[in-house]
Each structure stands twice: as structure tokens, then as C-alpha cells.
Design brief:
Homodimer. The protein is α/β, with parallel strands linked by helices. It contains 6 helices and 15 strands. It has a 6-stranded mixed sheet with strand order 2-1-3-6-14-15, sandwiched between helices. Strands 8-11-7-12 form a 4-stranded antiparallel sheet. The chain binds ribose-5-phosphate.
């Protein structure tokens, strides 16, 4: 096996360990939120296994088409926020987590619905492998943008000191379109000294639907090398 393949499968084992550990938090009668991405996919699969093999009684709200397809495939019964506006627990992945549990999300363009779900949950759990952990946030911030306002948003991002790049599916396919019909700008801010301040500033921009900074994480389940899971609170 080549080095790159070995690293990918090691990181996948860490994601799996974190996802399975978080899925153990789900109890009978809960209504839960299911996030998007490769780490949460392991949690969804494990919740599905518990539904099928342990008769776990659960209802889930999904954050994307991807999560919906995985949940249906795994046999997790679905509901909506309209029916269940308060969730007992939400489990979701991260692109980067800092030492204070500030998180950047949106690598899969799903952060708007993810933020709605995270803010509807009594307890918000982030699942991540080792590589996502960082002393401070320095990952680009995904920003979902109303297509009509893209030039205005670009200008505002530059005024905030950011370097915005429109996320493209490919040269041929054009921009990534979110589940909400919007586009994504990935904005590089370098090291983010004050995530709470940037959070407010981005939220105040006209034409921004939602950005990928999350400040409400309750616990992080980190899959470490060797399969151990560290819980950070
Ligand atoms: O939009 C996508 C999400 O915020 C994901 O949860 C995030 O990108 C992490 O994904 P993964 O677990 O695949 O690294």
C-alpha cells in the first residue's frame, strides 16, 4: 500500500472510531440531528445498525441530501424540524476545531442546514479525526452566498480582510450549488484571532446566507491514532 493510501485509511479508521463513539450517545426516544460528511457517515451507519439490531427507537433530522441518502440506506427513521423543532442531540463533523472548541464547517457546502440543526439541539457533538484539531483556527471559512449578491459579498469579504474564492464543482460543471440553491465562497482569513468577532461580522454581511464558523459545540469526539477516542468538553 502506498503512503498516501495508508494515511487515508488510517484517518478513515479514526473517523470511524469517533463516529461510532458518538452514536453510542443516542438513547431510546430521542430525536437527533445528523450532520454531513465522511465522519458523520460512520455515526449514521452506527445509529442505523442500532435501529436494526437493537431496536433503537429514534427519529432523525438530516442536514443534507447526502445525510438523507445515508440515513435512508441505514434504516434510520426520518422526521423534520417542523415536526420536532427541538432535538435532543446533534452529531456533526468539522473541517477544523480549535483549543476552545470553536469550529469551522462547510467543506461539504452543508453548513447552513448544519447550523440550523446544531442550534436546534440541546447537545451538539462534533466528531473529528486527529487531523482536524488545531491550536487556533486558520482554515478558510466557507460562506454560503445568495447568487444574486455574489459581487457584493465578494466586496464585503475583501473589506473584512478576506480572500474569497468561488467554490467550483469543476471547470465544466461551474460553481458548487448548495442544497438551498446558493453558491459557496471559500474565504481565506489567515489565522483567526477572534472567532466570535469574525462570526458577528460575517453574519452582518448583506447577501451572506450563512457562514461556517460554529461557536456552540458542547463536546468533541476526537478519533486518535490507534483507535482511541478522546472526548473534549
Ligand atoms: O459541509 C460539510 C460539513 O460541515 C462537514 O461536516 C465537514 O466538512 C467535515 O466533513 P468530513 O467529516 O468529511 O471531513
Amino acid at each position: 500500500m502506498k503512503m498516501k493510501e495508508r494515511n487515508a485509511s488510517a484517518s478513515s479508521a479514526e473517523k470511524q472510531a469517533a463516529g461510532i463513539a458518538a452514536a453510542k450517545l443516542v438513547e431510546d426516544g430521542m430525536v437527533i440531528g445528523l450532520g454531513t460528511g465522511s465522519t458523520t457517515a460512520f455515526a449514521i451507519a452506527e445509529v442505523g445498525r442500532r435501529v436494526r439490531e437493537e431496536n433503537l427507537d429514534v427519529l432523525a433530522v438530516v442536514t443534507s441530501y447526502q445525510a438523507e441518502m445515508l440515513a435512508i440506506e441505514a434504516g434510520v427513521p426520518l422526521t423534520s424540524l417542523a415536526e420536532h423543532p427541538v432535538l435532543d442531540l446533534a452529531i456533526d463533523g468539522a473541517d477544523q476545531v480549535d483549543a476552545k472548541m470553536n469550529v469551522i464547517k462547510g467543506g461539504g457546502a452543508a453548513h447552513t442546514r448544519e447550523k440550523v440543526v446544531a442550534n436546534s439541539a440541546i447537545r451538539f457533538i462534533v466528531v473529528a479525526d486527529d487531523s482536524k484539531m488545531s491550536e487556533e483556527l486558520n482554515h478558510f471559512v466557507p460562506v454560503e452566498v445568495l447568487p444574486y449578491a455574489r459581487e457584493l459579498v465578494k466586496k464585503q469579504m475583501i473589506e473584512l480582510g478576506g480572500v474569497p474564492v468561488m467554490r467550483m464543482a469543476s471547470r465544466k460543471d461551474g460553481p458548487v450549488i448548495t442544497d438551498n440553491g446558493n453558491v459557496i465562497m471559500d474565504v481565506e482569513f489567515g489565522t483567526i484571532d477572534d472567532p466570535a468577532e469574525l462570526y458577528q461580522r460575517l453574519s452582518a454581511c448583506v447577501g451572506v446566507v450563512e457562514h461556517g464558523i460554529f461557536l456552540n459545540t458542547d463536546e468533541v469526539y476526537v478519533g486518535r491514532k490507534g483507535g482511541a477516542v478522546e472526548i473534549i468538553k
